[in-house]
């Protein structure tokens, strides 16, 4: 794992077309902005893991409740406003 130190306004470039920028820092968190092509999926880890779990259950033919994944996505979006 590469570990870098960045200040507010500084960025990290991945490949030719992905930019990760430090937008704001707080006491226990940071806000980052990610500029990536539309075809590149950018998800928070907990959402990604929820989707993966739902896919596994779906492949097994079991019923799954996608409400948890939806709540993670919607909950985070409403906090931004």
Describe the protein in words.
The chain has 81 residues and is of the alpha+beta class. The chain folds into 2 domains: 1-39, no CATH class; 43-81. Helix content is 36%, strand content 22%. The chain is built from 2 helices and 3 strands. It has helices spanning 45-59, 67-80; strands spanning 11-14, 18-25, 30-35. A 3-stranded antiparallel sheet has the order 1-2-3, with no helix packed on it. The longest helix has 15 residues, at 45-59. The protein is elongated. It starts with 10 loop residues before the first strand and ends with a helix.
Helix/strand layout:
Layout: E1 11-14, E2 18-25, E3 30-35, H1 45-59, H2 67-80
Antiparallel strand pairs: 1-2, 2-3
Helix pairs in contact: 1-2
Task: Name the descriptors.
about 80 residues; alpha+beta; 2 helices
Number of domains: 2
Widest sheet: strand ordering: 1-2-3
Report low-confidence residues grouped into runs of 5 or more. none
Helix/sheet category: alpha+beta
Largest sheet: 3 strands, antiparallel
Radius of gyration: 16 Å
- Indicate the mean pLDDT: 86
Order of helices and strands: EEEHH
Beta strands, count: 3
What is the helix fraction of residues, given as a range? Answer: 25-40%
């Amino acid at each position: 794992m590469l570990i870098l130190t960045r200040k507010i306004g500084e960025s990290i470039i991945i490949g030719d077309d992905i930019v990760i920028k430090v937008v704001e820092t707080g006491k226990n968190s940071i806000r980052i902005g990610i500029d990536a092509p539309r075809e590149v999926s950018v998800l928070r880890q907990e959402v990604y893991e929820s989707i993966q779990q739902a896919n596994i259950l779906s492949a097994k033919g079991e019923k799954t409740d996608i409400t948890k994944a939806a709540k993670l996505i919607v909950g985070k979006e409403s906090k931004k406003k």
